[in-house]
Design a protein that fits this description.
The complex is a heterodimer of chains A (about 550) and B (about 180). By secondary structure, chain A is an alpha/beta fold. Chain A has 23 helices and 17 strands. Helix content of chain A is about 40%, strand content about 15%. The longest helix of chain A is centred in the first third of the chain and has 15 residues. By secondary structure, chain B is α+β, with helices and mostly antiparallel strands. Helices cover about 25% and strands about 35% of the residues of chain B. Chain B is built from 4 helices and 9 strands. The chains are: A alpha/beta (about 550), B alpha+beta (about 180). The interface between A and B is large, with 41 and 36 residues.
Chain lengths: ~550, ~180
């Protein structure tokens, strides 16, 4: 069998149904094999788009997302998506074409050392040197991408090797990788110690991150939280991992989190971190982060434990396996629930005093926060929301109260503007029966706007709600607050007419400028067939509050 | 402490052991799969995480599929547990051993080319003898001396001969092996 056909067989054996990508010279054999393979190929218009589609697909479904590109510029265009996937732990496999082996290292046409370029940003990578190993590498790539702490794996295949004839035998066993054995169970002694610490804590907080979503452990998290009256906060990556309407929910924490969540961390005596990595957007000034707390840290990746904040009780394991054990051990201790009453009194007082709020519009102008609230109403809070990066992302995190996991798809770690549209396409492909809505910013949307063509060509009915304020809003906010209002290259100036642009792509374009019309316009956009872009004109200079200024402590939130 | 027993722990007694600086030199002995690019992965990891390698030695082992990387780094600057945990994340890394100083034999080899005119030649040769070094090349103006030993010994020798004019020095980086535990 031709190696490229064996590649397709290996992908199918891994359960792949959809791949995202763009053909080119060095992956001609792969695309020739794709011609006959029973796989649906979504033809992106830029490889970065294909990469983010694979990510959106993976985040929405929990399955491995696959993107393909040719050598050289095709492969380098994937780099941002690969970096995004390592930062947010997204299970993805990237298959790139490479120049023929006789040209390798000669600066051949469209040659780039993608293996070398991506080495710092992949979980692992394979450079194929013998075509017989292609199926093995694909299986190993899927295993590595999807187990342990998920992440991106690259398989780089020289063009001549994918044309080689090889013997293909279906592989059923787990690949043998002697240097790769993630620990998932959690040390029971440590778990018991954590249970005891919880039982002895007077001001505990559960701080959960994207790891809970990746582990599909939201139910297990709720069980633990409700085993007592434990307050819960999550990172931006963990939103939906605990239901926002729940009375034990404190809101998101971190730079644009709620005051209650951040003050709770600041005053806690015990913080149980689950699948979270103490990012600088969470801790603010590290030396003043949660100064009164001891830390239990549950994570599948041992290197995250004590990386930024030393853990007192480290537990290496999969949240799905560790949390039920912790809940069981905790229940057995029969701790006194009423000991947390005083803590809750304080938390409720903060909630009362510092709710998320903003000045309502009196002119009919649409406030960005009101836009998110309208979005929530128009979708009954049940849509899958993908987001670009910036103010709109933070407002969505604050005001779209996510009830379930895998409904909030954003670029948290790398902060990739232009992530929203392609990841919405990937999410819709993975979950065609759900409403998939991309919340875009006008700065971000244009960075991958070409993917409207993909949505139209493949009839993927995503809805893009554009929060249009005419600025790189978050950068403008920083320049206003911390750089003396010297607005340097943050005004968008003359943007395209978004309605006409949508129209030009063959999508439907709509616009709304009046507060009173926004919810109706959104309902119309959601009801319309096919891809839709709704241009929402919002107050141009609204700031996203509250916020922890960079390098400040949580207790010094402003706004 | 058993599950279900009421004995609680005091939070103030909990201690965080990780992330500490040990303040001494560490020798890491790393077994890796003998695959292309493995050294690049390790070197890249060190540079992007801001870890400084003091010495590095790479070579085959008794198993042709496995290579050994011996590297030394300063535990006063780097939290060694974080370094080893990051290394373990590399799929091609099989085993890492943070060698215990008292249970380890560590050796390094160096070649010194020293300026050695007639008037100082005798003294340099005496130093070589004291350090049990071997003179491996000689010319009218210089001596080339081979010395094996601990890094401390090599550095002591370097200090002795440097005033005579050290023309060139080549060091291999340390390699290390664990002492066999006594049979009794």
């Amino acid at each position: 069998m031709r190696a490229a056909d064996a590649l397709m067989e290996a992908l199918k054996a891994e359960g792949v149904e959809h791949v995202f990508g763009i053909p080119g010279g060095a992956n001609l054999p792969t695309y020739d094999a794709l011609y006959d393979a029973e796989l649906t190929h979504i033809q992106a218009r830029h490889e970065q788009g294909a990469g983010h589609m694979a990510e959106g697909y993976a985040k929405a479904s929990g399955r491995v997302g696959v993107a393909m590109a040719t050598s050289g510029p095709g492969a380098t265009n994937l780099v941002t998506a690969i970096a995004d996937a390592i930062m947010d732990s997204v299970p993805t496999v990237f298959v790139t074409g490479q120049v023929r082996t006789d040209l390798l290292g000669t600066d051949g046409f469209q040659e780039a050392d993608v293996n070398g370029i991506t080495m710092p940003i992949v979980k692992h990578s394979f450079m194929v040197q013998d075509p017989r190993y292609i199926p093995d590498y694909i299986h190993a790539a899927f295993h590595i991408a999807s187990t342990g702490r998920p992440g991106p794996v690259l398989v780089d295949i020289p063009q001549d090797l994918s044309r080689a004839e090889i013997e293909y035998e279906p592989i059923t066993e787990t690949p043998n990788l002697p240097g790769y054995k993630p620990s998932t169970e959690g040390n029971i002694k440590q778990i018991r110690l954590a249970a005891k610490a919880l039982a002895n804590a007077a001001r505990p907080v559960i701080y959960a991150g994207g790891g809970v979503i990746n582990a599909n452990a939201s139910d297990e998290l709720r069980e633990l939280a409700t085993a007592d009256n434990f307050p819960v906060t999550t990172t931006v990556m963990g939103l939906g991992g605990f239901p926002a309407p729940h009375e034990q929910w404190l809101g998101m924490l971190g730079m644009h989190g709620t005051r209650t969540a951040n003050y709770a961390m600041d005053n806690a005596d015990l913080i149980v971190a689950i699948g979270a990595r103490f990012d600088d957007r969470i801790t603010g000034k590290l030396s003043e982060f949660a100064p009164r707390a001891k830390f239990v840290h549950v994570d599948i990746d041992p290197a995250e434990i004590s990386k930024n904040v030393p853990a007192h009780i480290p537990i290496v394991g999969d949240a799905k396996q560790v949390l039920p054990k912790l809940t069981k051990e905790y229940r057995a201790l029969q701790a006194d629930r009423s000991r947390l009453d005083g803590w809750w009194e304080q938390l409720h007082a903060w909630q009362q005093e510092y709710p998320l709020t903003y000045e309502r519009s009196e002119t009919g102008e649409i406030k960005p926060q009101a836009m998110i609230e309208a979005m929530y109403k128009a979708t009954d809070g049940d849509a899958i929301i993908t987001s670009d990066v910036g103010q709109h992302q933070m407002w969505a995190a604050q005001y779209y109260h996510f009830k379930e996991p895998r409904r909030w798809i954003n670029s948290g770690g790398l902060g990739t503007m232009g992530f929203g549209l392609p990841s919405a396409i990937g999410a819709k492909v993975a979950r065609p029966d759900d409403t998939v809505l991309c919340l875009a910013g006008d700065g971000s949307l244009i960075m991958n706007v070409q993917e409207f063509a993909t949505a139209v060509r493949h009839e993927i009915p995503i809805k893009v709600f554009l929060m249009n304020n005419g600025y790189f809003g978050m950068v403008r906010q920083w320049q206003e607050l911390f750089w003396d209002g010297r607005y340097s290259s943050v005004e968008m100036g003359p943007s395209p007419d978004w309605v006409k642009l949508a129209d030009a792509f063959g999508a439907k374009g709509m616009r709304v400028e009046e507060q009173g019309e926004i919810e109706g316009a959104m309902r119309d956009a959601l009801a319309a067939e096919g891809p839709v872009l709704l241009d929402v004109r919002v107050s141009p200079e609204e700031n996203c509050y509250p916020m922890i200024p960079a390098g400040a402590a949580a207790r010094d939130m402003v706004g | 402490m058993e599950a279900g027993t009421p004995d609680l722990i005091k939070l103030e007694d909990l201690d965080a052991a990780a992330g500490r600086l040990t303040g001494r030199k560490h020798v890491l002995s790393i077994l890796v799969e003998n695959r292309p690019g493995v050294l690049a992965r390790i070197a890249g990891l060190f540079s992007r995480r801001g870890f400084n390698i003091d010495t590095l030695a790479v070579g085959p082992t008794e198993d042709p599929d496995i290579s050994r990387i011996t590297l030394t780094l300063d535990g006063a600057v780097h939290p060694i547990d974080q370094v080893t945990k990051q290394l373990h994340k590399l799929v091609n890394v099989l085993k890492i051993r943070d060698m215990e100083p008292n249970e380890t034999i560590a050796r390094e080899m160096a070649l010194f080319k020293v300026s050695a005119p007639v008037e100082s030649r005798q003294e340099i040769m005496q130093f070589a003898e004291i350090f049990r070094a071997t003179i491996v090349d000689v010319s009218r103006r210089s001596l080339t001396i081979e010395l094996t030993g601990s890094s401390d010994k090599l550095e002591a020798f370097e200090r002795m001969i440097r005033p005579h004019g050290l023309i060139e020095m080549v060091r291999t980086g340390e390699v290390a092996i664990a002492r066999t535990k006594s049979d009794s």
